[in-house]
Amino acid sequence: MESKAVDQQPLSKNAQKKLLKQQRYESKKAEKKALLKQEKKREGERKRKEWEEKLAAAATEQEKQQLIESRKCLRKERMEQRSHDKEKKMTRLTNAKQNGQNVVIDLEFDNLMNSSELHSLVQQIMYCYAVNGRCTSPAHLWLTGCQGEMQDQLQRLPGFDKWIIEKENRPYIEAFQDQKERLVYLTADAETTLDVLDPKHIYIIGGLVDRNRWKGLTMKKAEDQGIQTAKLPIGMYLKMSSSQVLTVNQVVEILLKYLETRDWKTSFFEVIPQRKRCEDDNDIEWKEETEAKDDHEFKIHDIEREEEVEGKDDHKMKIHDIEQEETEEKDDHEFKRQCMS
Ligand SMILES: C[S@@+](CC[C@H](N)C(=O)[O-])C[C@H]1O[C@@H](n2cnc3c(N)ncnc32)[C@H](O)[C@@H]1O
């Protein structure tokens, strides 16, 4: 097959409009996040006040001690539950190394991204790892070609060293040199459409955040290397409002959802954000069914919130014993720690 040329293309009027729309969306998202942070802070203060009042209302010293003891017990139970959940997650991820579907994130593109795009990719990888850990049947995730700035940024993530993920400095083509026929590069530019996920295949996702600046790049790479390519069967199930090029974490999440449900339609509708989809009658029907789950951004936010709340609760209980003092930075740190563990 003839290789396609890959150029960095100037932005068309349409692309500029889209970029503006994206920027507006990002700023709204940041506003929402700030509001949420304030709300959480207020909620924390309210709960703390409630606890202090409860303590102050205790009629006797003995009653007060009982309240403190029962709170300590609750905390202990929660910690035990968390460590039990963590153990189960470790077991699932360790098993996935033996039996899980191989999914590779190709990290050989760090020279094509600016620092904010690199940062965004690192965040996406972090989400991929977190979502994989929650799956009942996780994939066997690989990070290949992990070098230079990319490696530095990943290494800076707290807990990255303990991640149960395959970290491979070599490019996938070297790491899997004896299994080249099993490699399938997933790319929106492929002619072949993915039908099912074959456990014998090793699916590769381009670790790239490029706002489609580097059109056709992964397709060309796969063609040059003589490996198979495939696109997700998005068009068979829904209409997109723009291109069918998804982000790395969306593709990983779709694959994970598919491994769980063996149903592409469910996987697409649960992962692809509403704003990226066109609504036709069929979609609307689906929208009603899945409305609460629809927005992927919302889901990511949910994960973030879940981690934050969990971390915060735990954190709050601990520091309550020390000084009943709480700072936003500590919360952030706790969230990161939880996310990485
Ligand atoms: C943000 S895209 C990068 C787009 C880039 N211009 C390229 O040439 O692939 C990140 C990666 O997600 C995967 N991907 C995105 N949309 C896809 C689709 N519709 N089908 C298959 N893979 C897709 C591809 O592996 C792609 O490299």
From TrEMBL:
GO cellular component: nucleus
Composition-biased stretches (Basic and acidic residues): 23-51, 288-304, 312-322, 330-341
Primary enzyme class: transferase
Keywords from the named record: Methyltransferase, S-adenosyl-L-methionine, Transferase
EC number: 2.1.1.221
Molecular function per GO: tRNA (guanosine(9)-N1)-methyltransferase activity; tRNA binding
Top-rank lineage group of the source organism: Eukaryota
Entry-linked CDD domains: SPOUT_Trm10-like
Gene3D superfamilies assigned: 3.40.1280.30
BP GO annotations: tRNA N1-guanine methylation
Catalytic activity: guanosine(9) in tRNA + S-adenosyl-L-methionine = N(1)-methylguanosine(9) in tRNA + S-adenosyl-L-homocysteine + H(+)
Region listing for Disordered, in residue ranges: 1-51, 288-341
Keyword Transmembrane included in the entry's annotation: no
SAM-dependent MTase TRM10-type domain residues: 89-279
InterPro entries cross-referenced by the UniProt entry: MT_TRM10-typ, MT_TRM10-typ_sf, tRNA_m1G_MeTrfase_euk
Name by which UniProt lists this protein: tRNA (guanine(9)-N(1))-methyltransferase
Natural source organism: Anisodus acutangulus
